[in-house]
Amino acid sequence: MTLPRTPTFRLDGRRALVTGASRGIGLGCAVALAEQGAHVVMAARGAKALAAAVAEINAEGMSAEMMELDVTDTDAVHSAVAAGGPFDVFVNSAGLARHSPALDTDPADYDAVMAVNVRAAYFLATEVARGMVGRGGSIIQISSQMAHVGGQDRAVYCASKHAVEGMTKAMAIEWAAEQIRVNTICPTFIRTELAEQTLKIPEKRAWIESKIKLGRVGEVEDIMGAVQWLASDAAALVTGSSVLIDGGWTAG
User: Fold this and answer.
1) Which residue from 1, 21, 96, 166 puts its CA 20 to 30 A from 43's CA?
2) End-to-end CA distance of the chain, in Å?
């Protein structure tokens, strides 16, 4: 008998691009990929925070470089990906949230959220995919549990993340022949600088914790294993899927 063996999670020799990489979930994703041996190109707008993160990763013996980038500038995205690629792994963690009751939605806020969460996500994926044609690769969009449910004061955000799920499925079908896998990770509330704005309000935190069946807010570390898995050969047959890291929120 020949026993089966688990495919490797290692990413040695692979180049990864992570957007929104200077803090929070994006930084966690960059570290997760670097831990498995990938060379990580970390992209964000804030050069100071980005440089500090890259320096710390390199100081720990991993491999990273920085790319200062506004993901809403499609010309800049095209140039940066063409110059820095091709990439074997892409994680898009750039995102924006502006919450309000639906009846009070400001068109400028709507446009800003859609520009980052939908338009930028779409064109980042297509630019990276061009370099994966003939080589294969893994594209991972950081979506949200709100891509699968509704949430109070979150009509615009929910709309943007539902759109990400739709584009991911369509891209997965289109690019499967090229062995380009496209998936999403859908976290619940993760304790980051951005989420703290909501978590510090007692009644909102109580509502959040009542919806998360495991009874706690997520940590960045809760995302990192899923990123490693989807990026690696261990997920070689996974495409067009959503990985829900929501503590059971959407199960109920």
Assistant:
1) 166
2) 43
* Tokens matching residue 209: 């914790």
How far apart (Å, rounded) are the C-alpha atoms in residues 122 and 92?
Answer: 10
Tell me the one-letter amino acid at 141. Q
Residues 6+ apart with CB under 8 A from 1: none
The two structure tokens encoding residue 208: 């959040």
Q: Which of 176-180, 194-198, 206-210, 212-216 has the lowest mean pLDDT?
A: 194-198
Q: Tell me the average pLDDT across 199-208.
A: 89
Percentage of the chain beyond pLDDT 90 is 90
**What is the rounded distance in angstroms from the CA atom of residue 86 to the CA atom of residue 183?**
19
- Beta strands 137-142 and 180-187 are parallel
Angstrom distance (rounded) from CA 249 to CA 252: 6
Token pair, residue 154, equals 């979150």
Predicted TM-score (pTM) of the model is 0.96
pLDDT for position 151: 87
Instruction: Supply the mean pLDDT for the chain.
Output: 96
CATH topology of domain 15-243: Rossmann fold (3.40.50)
Read off the pLDDT band of 204 (50, 70, 90): confident
122 in active site? no
For residues 19, 24, 25, 31, the Cα torsion angle rounded to the nearest 10 degrees is 80
Active-site hit among 87, 122, 157, 249: 157
| Contact in structure between 236 and 178 (CB atoms under 8 Å) | no
The CA-based dihedral angle spanning residues 55, 57, 80, 25, taken in that order and rounded to the nearest 10 degrees = -120
Domain ranges of the chain: 15-243
